[in-house]
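Ticket opened by: R.M.
Priority: normal
Category: complex prediction / small molecule

The reporter submitted a protein together with phenylalanine and asked that the result be attached to this ticket for the collaborator who will pick it up next week. Submitted input follows.
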Amino acid sequence: MRETFGSRFAVIMAMAGSAIGLGNIWRFPYLVGEGGGAAFIIVYLIALVFLSIPILIAESVIGRKTQSGTFGAMEKLAPGTKWKWLGLLTVITPLIIVSYYSVVGGWSIDYLFKACTLSFRSSSIDSIGSMFTDFSSSVWGPILCHTIFLGLTCLIVVGGVKGGIEKFAKISMPILFLLIVLIMIYSLSLPGAEKGVEYMLKPDFSKLDGKTIASAMGQSFFSLSLGVGTILTYASYIKKDENIITSGLGTAFFDLLFALIAGFAVMPAVFAAGIAPGAGPGLVFETLPYIFAKMGAGSPVVSAVVSILFFLTILVAALTSSISMIEVGTAYLVEEKNMTRGKAVAVLFIGTWALGVLCSLSFGPLNGLHLAGVTLFEFCDKLTSNYLMAFGGLLFTIFVGWKMTKKSVRDEITNDGTLKGNSRLFPLLYFLIKYVTPIGIVVIFITNFLI
Ligand code: PHE
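Result attached by the on-call engineer:
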C-alpha cells in the first residue's frame, strides 16, 4: 500500500512546509525593497493568481491522479512519449536545488550555535560582516554544517511520508508561525521601525520594468516550490476524497502570509539599526546578528533569545523545504528502481552532498572556478530558479491543458463531480491552466530576454 497523508491539516502543513523556506525569509523582503515596495507586491500577487496557483493545481491534478512521483506520473499518463523527459527533469532539478540550499541551511546551524554561545554580543557591524565572510569562505566548518543539515533532512525522509515528513511538518509549522510572529512584533517595536514598513509598502512604480516582473514571477515559483515536481509528489500522497483545491489555495495563502510577516520582521530591524538593506543571504547573516545584539544592549538576555529564535526559525523553515526536495528523488528511486527507502535516500545523500561540498567551496578555495561567468553556487541557483522552474511549470500546465482530456482533469478537480464548489470553479481554472498561464510565462520570458 502506498502511503498517504493522514488529514487535510497534514497535507497543508507538509505542502506549506515545502513552500515556506529561505525564499520567504531572505529573498522576498529583499526583492520587495528592490522592486518598488508595494508595486512589487502587486505584481507578485498577479503572478501568484494567474501563474503560480494554476501551476500548483496542474501539479496537484497530475500527482493525485496517478498516485506516482513525477517520472512515474508521466509514464502512466503519456507512456512511451517524450514527456518522460519532463519527469526526469523534475527529478533532477530539486536535487540541484537541495545541494546549494543545504549549504545555506548549514550556515543557519552555525549561526544558531553562535547565537547560543553569545558570539554576537560585543561585535561591531564590520566584525559581524567579516564573521560571515570568514566562515562561509573557510573549508571545514561550512562543510561540516552542510553535512549535518543534509543528514537531518535525509533522516526525516527515511522516516517515511507519515512517520517522517507529516509528523515533522505538523509539529514544526505551527511553531514556525509563532516564532516569526514573535520576531515581527519585536522588530516592529524597535525605534525607527516605520522606515522598514515604509520600504515594504511604499509603491514606487518607476521601478517596474521587464526584469522586475520576471523576478516577481521567478520568486513566486521559487516560493511555492513550483515546476520541480515537489508539489506533484506531495499531491500523490493526498487521499482520493480530499479537496485538492482547498489544499492548494491553503498552501498559497500560508506561503504569502509568511512572506509578508517575514518582510515585516526583517526590514524594520534592518532600518532601525540604520543599515542599508543588502542583498541575498548576506542580509540575514551579515546584518541581523548585529541588530539583535545592539538592540539587546540593555538586556543581553533579550538579544540572545531573539537571535536564537531567529536562526532556529530559518533552520526549521529550510528543513521542511529540503525534505520535499529529497522526497522527489526518493519517490523516483523507490517506485521506478525498486530501491528500499533507506537505500534510495543514501544514494541521494551521497550525490547531493558532493555537489553541495563544491557549492560550499565556491565561497572559498573554488571561488575562481566559474561557469557562465558566475561561481558554482550562483550557477546552480540561477539555473534552477531563473530557468528550470519556469520551464517545468510551463510544461506542467501544457500537459494538463493540452495533453490530458478535459474530462479527466475535471474529474480530478471535482472528485468525480462530488465537489460542487469546485465544479463551479472548474471552467475558470481550466481556462487559466490551458491559456493564461502558459502564454503568460512565455511572454514574460521573451520580454525579459529582449529588453
Ligand atoms: N519554496 C522553498 C523556499 O521558499 C524552496 C523550494 C524550491 C522548495 C523548490 C522545494 C522545491 O525556500
